[in-house]
Amino acid sequence: MASTMYKAWLQNHHVEQPELREALARWSGSIVASVHTEVLDTAVKELALGIKQLYGEKPTVSKVPQSETFIYVGVADQLDKSFGYLDKSEIPRVGQEGYILKHVVREQHSILAVLGETDRGALYGVFHLLRLMNMGVQLEHLHIVERPRNQLRMINQWDNADGTIERGYAGHSIFFNENQIVEDMTRIKDYARLLASVGINAIAINNVNVNEVETAFISEEQLPAVAKLADVFRSYGIRLYISIHFASPMELGGLSSADPLLPEVREWWKMTAACIYDHIPDFGGFLVKADSEHRPGPFAYGRDHAEGANMLAEALEPFGGIVIWRCFVYNCMQDWRDRSTDRARAAYDHFKPLDGSFHDNVVLQVKNGPMDFQVREPVSPLLGAMNQTNQMIEFQITQEYTGQQRHLCYLIPQWKEVLEFDTHAKGKGSYVKHIGDGTLFGMKISGYAAVSNIGDDENWTGHTLAQANLHGYGRLVWNPDLTAEEIAEEWIRLTFGNEEQVVRTVADMLLASWHIYEQYTAPLGVGWMVAPNHHYGPDVDGYEYSRWGTYHFADREGIGVDRTDKSGTGYAGQYFSPNREMYNQLSSCPDELLLFFHHVPYTHKLQSGQTVIQHIYETRFTGAERAEWLIQQWTSLEGKIDPERYEQVLERLQEQAEHAKEWRDVINTYFYRKSGIADEKGRTIYR
Amino acid sequence: MASTMYKAWLQNHHVEQPELREALARWSGSIVASVHTEVLDTAVKELALGIKQLYGEKPTVSKVPQSETFIYVGVADQLDKSFGYLDKSEIPRVGQEGYILKHVVREQHSILAVLGETDRGALYGVFHLLRLMNMGVQLEHLHIVERPRNQLRMINQWDNADGTIERGYAGHSIFFNENQIVEDMTRIKDYARLLASVGINAIAINNVNVNEVETAFISEEQLPAVAKLADVFRSYGIRLYISIHFASPMELGGLSSADPLLPEVREWWKMTAACIYDHIPDFGGFLVKADSEHRPGPFAYGRDHAEGANMLAEALEPFGGIVIWRCFVYNCMQDWRDRSTDRARAAYDHFKPLDGSFHDNVVLQVKNGPMDFQVREPVSPLLGAMNQTNQMIEFQITQEYTGQQRHLCYLIPQWKEVLEFDTHAKGKGSYVKHIGDGTLFGMKISGYAAVSNIGDDENWTGHTLAQANLHGYGRLVWNPDLTAEEIAEEWIRLTFGNEEQVVRTVADMLLASWHIYEQYTAPLGVGWMVAPNHHYGPDVDGYEYSRWGTYHFADREGIGVDRTDKSGTGYAGQYFSPNREMYNQLSSCPDELLLFFHHVPYTHKLQSGQTVIQHIYETRFTGAERAEWLIQQWTSLEGKIDPERYEQVLERLQEQAEHAKEWRDVINTYFYRKSGIADEKGRTIYR
């Protein structure tokens, strides 16, 4: 039997309360499903399993009603034949992935209908219904018409064939081991369930840094094994993508070049695409990291990103596949002495000039910020800057720079801020979420990708509470109008049950955690200050004299990066007005991004009224205290959470609190030594 | 045919000059050796090979003279029988490892005699004779009586069974591969030649950090393979030692404890020692790193170092084996906030109280400085502090903190300074070299160990000029009264030939290189400032907030560690007077160690007259310029050095010069940002 850690948010806790059991009883006896498809079968199985876990008895499953009351799971095109009296007028509103949840009373029947236009819609409807059942929502008179707002809702695995995971903090890969795709698919199927339950519909199974073994995933030899993975995900409505090596024609094909304009290279990719689709008819496409951090790409042949991406796009186009081309391109051999180069500018500078030159089955994958998933950065100015090019947005669920799943850092509030950012690309109201859903410029392909945070740890995510980030990502990109509070509450109820004290306490913890983490780590949007390579723990100068373009420029007078148009790198000018002016002007630049855009004296007064140096001290002290507060909150729940998860989380929170003190002291001492300015309140800063 | 890189200082360049050939001709025809032992056979073979390479013809080897002129290689106890007319009165002066080189004319014979009391002495005599021949020294009327000043002249390999080398910068291990001892001993034999040629007589074959596989080297199963290594070294007069795992009775013996006072543990070690000597009758003994950097040791059982070492000593004693116990013991989990703990004090604090409690077949191996092989540190105050305990001195040939064999750093001048340091342990004139040779306190065992710098790179040492450090170590510990200049010149002549421009130029480079490296790296004895873990390249704060006890405490006012008795950690008080006072007083503390002993303002005036900050800038600028000067010196030799070695060295020097600029700029910028003080000469310091 799976542990509570393992079940994550698919607990389906046994319902004990009499009135809730009674309400559930009506719907727990019978499921009717008149049609069979692989995904619809999955939907019915999940529903039956969920009800069994919730109620204790397994419902019957039949093709035709065998009782007066039942749940009907079906797809629109079969409706007439089976249940002509079900109203199908709303079906066009749900699209290819939406559903209707509706309680219908007709003649002698009381029917709880889960209807999709497609089987995938029905599957999502089933998971929605199970959520409602878990949360004790009244199902009588239910009437929900729901569809996902975004097209691509993708997960990127950074798993390597050798079983390691780049920036993985939850054990080894569940996909690969010792350069082989695993044979036992049990855990992968359980992962597919988790993903489908929150609406994920696409997955790239291997790291964007593609090594030798993964390069061969698109070879005739390896495709049968990859196809088995695709089968598992397909049964949960998820399409499989592969991260490819741009120089595959050389590595695999024995060609002497990978020049995207060479006929033999183009031919090689076309043959390869055909071969892939022979094995995986619904293959999603390629994810590509090219000419970035020493990965090969079109630059080697004097070609640009569009020429590279379009070649791949042409190969995939006949089969309906797409190319996802990452925009994380910058000079990673920068000289720290060179103040004119600004890594933050790089994605925009590289891609903006190519607007309009990409094929329409290419989509550019843009990280949420211009740097690299820091605890705080501005929204990437590339988002919205290209009005003739498909764009999707990349988040990082795995907590590389946000505590590595040893610290609690619930990221939904951060992502929510990104989605609500107004780019002004088409005037006021040009929110990032309307780039994500493709409506701002009417794009053919759009959506979201995020780097997964799971591994083979029993609890999937290292820190049990980090499961909330995976859940929340799926829910948020399904519907960006959900609030972080709503998403958090749902996750807690599904994961730990409906006891109000648990719900309120854990919600408080989750919703405070990003700010707490920010409070004791790099201040005011300046970023980094972490130990090189592994990125865990404080090292203020760790990247200061490096080639990575990630500096804070702290000296004895002040700190920050001047990215203004007037005296700095001009990065601020990549934004549309009035964002450009907001960031350019010291008076209007938001405090939390001040040091990202401006170099200021330690004595500069923030909009909060505090000086920069006092803010640094103040937030470090508060942050470390708040990390202790997280422990207090959690321990107040002792006895209300099963011991296994209680202890696991407690241990992580204790480590976090200790480590928060280390952050506090290192940062405070660093700036005290540099500024010579004491804390106004006389708290301990080590010399 | 071996490359010039590979042959290192055993080139035996073919002699071209007519008058030199003529002088050599006399001695190139015949070798007489009336006795056979394994080592004497080695000596004869080396002599015959050397003459063949030098002169072009192989000499005859016979038991009795077959010509009027010959070289005689022999040992004292056979002298009477063979050549009664050879004077043996000087033999008692050469001891167990010395020799007489003497030209004797008797009756019809002209004899160049190489005489040892032992065969090892004769072997060293042969290598000495070959050196003379290489350098074109007149052999007529030769009369040299020579013996090594030091007893143990040891090499420590930090090789791991998996083939990696801890702090190795010249490729993989020549001893181990994939957890096996290599089968082909060719390269190991060539290494033994190199070592014997400079007088090394002991080698510990595995890393002091002993992992699982190496732990089993003392097992019945592994000893036959280890014995084969011992055989190779024995034929060159070198005894084999093994680094052992203190918890071997548990790891190998299945005991539940490794408590050194438990009878079953003591019995296990005795049985193990007996087993080792069954396989290796002349086994040297154990090298032990215990209770240091997480290695197990006696502390776990509430026992002290003496109890741990003595247990092992008792096991080895019946067979004449010894225990070499390392004193590199300190708290590697220090809190950087804690200014009262001082890692520099640790070795003294741990071991001084145990003086007199070690058995007389235990020798303590003490690193030359109190920290860890920095480019500059004071001599360890433990040296001389124990007058009832055997001590030996540990150097590091492998350039962990001194440029990793990518930078040229000839270490003999540094070691020479150590040996000439007057500890005042028994009053004026108590030089470290008299601790090394055991005479200061009349110790039974004494000598030197050094961490090897070789691997399987074609040139052994990564940087071809780094061969000089291995050669120089052997020569210096053979005779500490040799000057660095003499040793360097000898190495150059043997390695590159006798052309005066080459000799002078390379000597200038070698002799300047340590100071050059110091000039652009950590200033004024403060140490570290390197990137964590791999220790290559500048990172001023890399270890500043770490647990390693290695800090510089730079703030906006000043820098340095207060180790004085009055206001600091009291480390200075571990020295004998007047060293204690010299270091305690700012006015007498040598500039080059100022920041090791004192925390001073940047504006503090050094004895040189410069301020600390200006000294930092000045030396960084000069150091980087001098790194360029090394290139100029080397390129002036183009055509005079074979192209293979010329290019290899040039490439390294170019990398060094580039990297020296990185050091210069990072350090200068760091201190400019912190101090706000500009360079007096207005040179470029990046903001």
Automatic annotation (TrEMBL), chains A, B:
Catalytic activity: Hydrolysis of (1->2)-alpha-D-(4-O-methyl)glucuronosyl links in the main chain of hardwood xylans
Keywords: Carbohydrate metabolism, Glycosidase, Hydrolase, Polysaccharide degradation, Xylan degradation
Domain annotation Glycosyl hydrolase family 67 catalytic: ranges: 134-460
Stated name of the protein: Xylan alpha-1,2-glucuronidase
GO molecular function, one term: alpha-glucuronidase activity
Encoding gene, per UniProt annotation: aguA
Family: Belongs to the glycosyl hydrolase 67 family.
Short name of one Pfam family: Glyco_hydro_67M
Keyword flag Lipid biosynthesis: no
GO annotation, cellular component aspect: extracellular region
Residues the record marks as active site: E293 (proton donor), D372 (proton acceptor), E400 (proton acceptor)
Organism encoding this protein: Xylanibacillus composti
Top-tier EC class: hydrolase
Domain of life, source organism: Bacteria
Domain Alpha glucuronidase N-terminal: 8-129
GO terms for biological process, alphabetical: glucuronoxylan catabolic process
